[in-house]
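Hi L.,

As promised, Starvation-inducible DNA-binding protein:
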Amino acid sequence: MKINIGINEESRKAIADELSKVLADSYMLYLKTHNYHWNVTGELFHSLHEQFEEQYTELAEAIDEIAERIRSLGYRAPGTFEEFNELTSIKEDTEEPEALEMVRRLALGNEQVLRTARQALKPANEAEDEATIDLLTRRLDVHSKTAWMLRSHLE
């Protein structure tokens, strides 16, 4: 069935392509955060273990919402690790950093998601896609606050 939601196909594709990058970055940040939740050690263990759990739980919900928005625009949401790895600007860790290095890397990851989401706002704004604008604005708020909280550990 042809999609007729008041946004032309070219704009829907541009928005979906940018949202796919937000989805990939969010998924990679989710994986990194969950990994750190499992593997954090040291005197900050308890507080960071809980903080990381809150963050990855929120990210899991966001990932679903972003993917569903891509689908509502009429495009397939990327869903494999290979696709995410190709689209993301967040790299996975291959070593086991100490607790405060985990915090630093997660702060950087949240800042990267912010930059990716800001890029996705451009085609959404041009197409006057309020639903995507709202989704991205909420993501900007969450990642700004999360990055601030993480950076506060490092001061």
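The chain has a mean pLDDT of 97.

Thanks again for sending the construct details.

K.
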